[in-house]
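::Amino acid chain::
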Amino acid sequence: MEREWKPRILGLGGTTRPASTSERALRAALDFAERAGAQTDLLLADDLAFPAYAPERGAPEPRVERLVDLARRADGVIVASPGFHGGPSGLIKNALDHLEELRGDERPYLDGRAIGCIVCAAGWQATATTLAALRSTAHALRAWPTPLGVTINSTPAGDVDPVTAAAPQLGLLVEQVVGLARWRHAAAEVEVGA
C-alpha cells in the first residue's frame, strides 16, 4: 500500500521576545498545518539570528545552512513577522535575503511554492504596509503569496486574545499553503506518469 504524501511546510518568524504575538500566530498556523496532514519545521528568532546577508562572505554558518536546507526541502512556507516601521523586522528580512543561496537550485529560490504571510503589529496601518512588503519579497523569491494574508493587531481589544481571534483566518491561510503544495505534487505525479 502506497503511503500518503505529506507536504513539508517551513515556518519562519517570531521576535526575540518570547511568546510574541507573531511567534504564537506562527505556532498556531503550523498546528493547523499538522492537523491538515503536513510535516512542519519551525525556525524562530534564535534560529534566525545570524549576520546580515553578504554573498562575499563565503561558506555560511550552520544556522544559515539549516535555513537554506529546510527552505530547499519545503513544499510551502509560512512567514510571521512583526511590523517594524512599515516593513518586516530586520531579522525576518535578513532570513529571506539568505534564500539567495537557493538561486542556483533546480527549483531556484522558492519557485512555485506558496508562501503564507502573517503580520502582527500594534495598529492596523503597520500590519497593512508590512504585509505588502512581505508579499513583494515573496514575489521576488518566485513564491506564490496566498490570496489571504493574515494581519493581527496585537493591541488587545478587551479580553479577546488577538491570535485566538485570528484563528479562522490562520486556518484559511494554511489551507491555501497546504492546498497548493498538494495540487503541485499531484500535477507532478500526473506529469511523471504521462
Summary: The chain has seven helices and seven strands.
